[in-house]
Design brief:
With about 210 residues, this protein is of the alpha/beta class. Helices cover about 35% and strands about 15% of the residues. It has a single domain, classed as Rossmann fold (3-Layer(aba) Sandwich). It is built from 7 helices and 7 strands. A 7-stranded mixed beta sheet has the order 3-2-1-4-5-7-6, sandwiched between helices. β4, α6 and β5 form a beta-alpha-beta unit. α6 runs parallel beside α7. The longest helix is centred in the C-terminal third of the chain and has 16 residues. Bound molecules: S-adenosylmethionine. S-adenosylmethionine binds next to α2, β2 and α5.
Length: about 210
């Protein structure tokens, strides 16, 4: 399945990464998907298209993001929101009249799936403990890259693994965000889980042993 970019920015921008990711998800046939770190919603849209092809209307996508670059969030890495292609800046400013990194714009990108999608604006350090994880069977963990944030995110997703689901973490071995790898390695060891490192150490796939 082709990973489409929808004229926006995404983590999975390098050739083949998006398709690799979608194939990984498809292998597990999930129905209740959680993405931590939605950004412009490109992966969200690709996931909704995939889940629709697998389950018709019977799926759920939950997406959580700060959707805001504020002082309170300044310790987290938020990708640059402006485009190197000037046409894209013009398109969002004057045609869409939207900030692509906003709850409204992502809702708009996902409007064909409005009955299946639940988007949450907030910090995963505060929000995740309130989310019912009992039905979620796949997590794409791509939010904050601070050690404490990844540690917290994984802690609240442990039930997904216990229920035989999967957590796929992005940016496992990023030189400028070493806390991601540290938090994942500790989580896997402490909980005696299986962890596969994929695609040149980009992804860590965590499952039950
Ligand atoms: C790398 S981007 C996500 C890219 C997206 N998954 C994709 O595939 O295109 C990381 C996102 O995580 C969000 N983020 C960072 N820290 C967060 C936190 N503590 N809670 C929720 N979202 C966070 C940022 O706002 C940013 O949009």
């Amino acid at each position: 399945m082709k990973y489409k970019k929808y004229f926006r920015k995404t983590s999975l921008k390098q050739k083949g990464d998006g398709e690799f990711f979608l194939n990984e998800v498809r292998k597990k046939n999930p129905k209740y998907f959680l993405e931590i770190g939605v950004f412009h919603g490109v992966t969200a849209r690709n996931i909704c298209e995939l889940l629709k092809s697998l389950h018709k209307k019977d799926f759920k996508y939950i997406g959580l993001d700060l959707f805001e670059n504020s002082d309170e969030n300044k310790s987290e890495i938020i990708p640059s929101n402006s485009f190197s292609n000037p046409f894209k800046n013009i398109y969002f400013k004057y045609i869409k009249k939207q900030d692509p990194y906003s709850l409204e714009a992502v809702h708009d990108l996902l409007k064909n799936f409005k009955d299946n999608v639940h988007l949450i604006k907030g910090n995963s350090n505060k929000i995740l403990k309130k989310i019912d994880m009992s039905k979620i069977d796949y997590v794409f963990l791509d939010g904050g890259h601070e050690y404490e944030t990844v540690k917290n995110d994984l802690k609240y997703c442990l039930d997904v693994i216990k229920n035989s689901g999967t957590i796929l973490c992005d940016d496992y071995n990023l030189s400028y965000a070493p806390g991601v790898k540290k938090a994942i390695d500790e989580f896997v060891t402490q909980n005696k889980l299986k962890c596969e490192i994929l695609r040149n150490s980009r992804f860590a796939k965590i499952e039950k042993n």
